Amino acid sequence: MNKITIEQFKEVDIRVGQIIKITHLKDGKYSTHKLQINFGKEIGIKQSCARLVNYSDEELQNKFIVGILNFPPKQIGKNMSEVLILGVPDENGECILLSPDNSVPMGGRVY
């Protein structure tokens, strides 16, 4: 594993956002969701695409997530993903989203 410095870690803009809209994308190879995520007044709403088979729409709606905001946008099928949502694979390799336990401000920076 490569080591990084604390200065390098600080360059990664990791923030908390809230999922406000979910759209199912049917044109892809996998069952994918297009998510609109509110990162607060300073940053605003960003879009991300993710394969989230472990979650219903009801579980995703208004869920707080953690994402990286300063990676370049990535084309996923016909959609542009502006945020990399962070998660951990379960025993089947499917994403379990990282989410704060308590209420935190939208756009709060992870450190």
Automatic annotation (TrEMBL):
Keywords: RNA-binding, tRNA-binding
Superkingdom as given in the UniProt entry: Bacteria
Domain TRNA-binding residue range list: 8-111
Listed transmembrane segments: none
Molecular-function GO term, any one: tRNA binding
Stated name of the protein: tRNA-binding protein
Organism encoding this protein: Candidatus Dojkabacteria bacterium
